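Teaching assistant here, posting this on the class forum so everyone can see the example we discussed in section. The complex has two components, and the goal was to see what a joint structure prediction looks like when all of them are supplied at once.
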Amino acid sequence: MNAAFPPDVIEFWGAARHRFDRLGGPEFALLAEQDRALRTQAAAALADLGADELDVRADEDQLLAGALLCRASGAVALPWPVVEDLLRVGERRLTLVDLGHPRVDHGDLAGEWIGADLDGTSHLLATGSPRPAKLGPFLVPATVGARQPDIPADDVARHLVLGVWRLLGGLEAALAEVVEHVGARTQFGKTLGEFQTVRFAIADATVSLRGLEELAKYTTWRLLSASDAERQVDAIALRLAGADAAVAVLRTCHQLLGAVGFCDEHDVSVFDRHLQPLIRLPESAERLAQRLVPAVRTGAFATLFS
Amino acid sequence: MDFEFGAAADALRVRLRALIREHIRPGFLGAFSNDPADLELTQRFCKILAQEGLLCLTWPREYGGGGGSVWEQTTVREEMWAHHEPRGAQYMGVNWVGPALMRHGSDEQRAKHLPPISAGEVVWCQGFSEPEAGSDLASLRTRAVPDGDGWLISGQKVWTSYAQMASWCVLAACTDPDLPSSQRLTLFLVPMDRAGIEVRPIASMLGPHHLNEVFIDNVRVTPDEVLGSVGGGWAVMRDALAYERVGIARYARCELLFEQLMEVLGAEWDELPPAVHTRWVRALVSLRIARLLAYRAVADQGAGIDPVDASISRIVTTTCDQVTAEVLLEAVGATSLDAGPAAVLAGAIDDHWRYAQAATVASGTIEVQRMLVARDVLGGRL
């Protein structure tokens, strides 16, 4: 039993965080909403880190490095489809969609896209133009094109898992902002962080994220060790846990920040709005839970006694 | 990265399940029953575990332990709790009294108390909570007044599990009310048959034997019965409670109950309302998280359990216990309030729901755990 990341992967994570911070953090993501061409700087940062050469399908170390690259990208709401690039099929980015209503985050970037549903059914996507929206500001509608070979279940699972690492990075950063705020903001003669209700809310959010982190590590390891039937089930379970945790933690963040947290220029607003595609798509949390019901019945959702 | 416990732990799990199948009767719901045969069964089973070197698997061999890994010990915890703790009241001695004695006891105390615990021959109880001091243990009122070279202890303890069965108690008392709260308390190792100790059971929804009052009237204790140092009780308690918080693998029983109920319901399970199915799924995901957080706390054990990891683990596993209890009752439906051997799973679901109500209260309320987590994140005092 060893739940620690290898030292070289931790070192890579540190380098990624440092490089993304140099872009300007979540503020850079906000600027990119106004000037979408700025996103090429995010691509340049990823290239500096050697992300193009990272093969998350190859071995455990590269998968773990990919996981922490996604976590670092989430921590600044990096305006780039990192997961979709890491899981390219040939030269085409791979995105997970509801094929009945495909939406693609950063779908307006140059390049071709393949959209797959959670069963692996895939099509070429013709992505449309950006539409003005607060939630998922880089999300664009798409139409389904030619059918493509099914995407392997392992790629779908990796996609779901890496997406949660990105989500986790964003949630951790959002909570860190709120922790700083409640330590500094004074009301009724004391800091917000001295009120027990506030302390409990911070504790609950911390517990949620610690649990999500452990589940993400475990599920990433399971991608390389579990049976065929279990890998995708585990990945969906992680995504469900990520979506549920995100809703709870972001609610806490907004409540503790008060009105300032809703302002566009506040980092928590950026995190909340930019993370929405990962929370809601390709399927809602309740639909993910429904997908897992048969797996409970067959034992594919493994417990100590299944 | 590797989440496997290893071949030794896997083999141990198989061995434990075989021992349980062989020695524990179907429908056994623990030693806390009105049937004395249940307590006797756990006493016999503890001796079997002790003979097999499994009762105190991770203890050093010199104290009767098996020298096993913490992951083997975790396997024991999971299998025992899942199967309604057939060690009965022993788990308290094994899980935290023994480790506390190893870390804080004198050579004489270790020699006297550890072998009987590892042999499964003695039951311990914990005399901490009082009518006026629950979560705030530093404000205990039970007083130990100097008398000759020892003390006379008077006061009252409450909610004391196992008190009727126990032959020894780790008794917390205030030795100097004028000192800061962290230096007021001392722990004493006291035999329960000593003159001046009286136990009264408290009837409760949890079932028999869970809750008791202990009245202490001028009970004489000697310096060699102090665990740790005089005034050092708070530090020992904090250490001990960290062990206790990761000691109960509640998630394991929840997972087993879900499996067993699904099997019993058969085709009826498929007809449950969709909302119950998805609640069931979410509960299983939460239980997996609870298990992983417990492993994180266990992994710290080499350097002493990180109290924050222990608190986080406890918050999640106790709340999962209650969520599980609700989903199970919901799934059973119209017969959910039936109790006793004729009820579904021989009354295990009714038993689980009742006991789960105390999960977020016993061994330190989760509010205390949340305060500890918040203090770690935000700083400041509780």
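For the discussion questions: Chain A touches chain B through 48 residues (CB under 8 Å). The mean pLDDT of chain A is 97. Think about how each of these relates to the inputs above.
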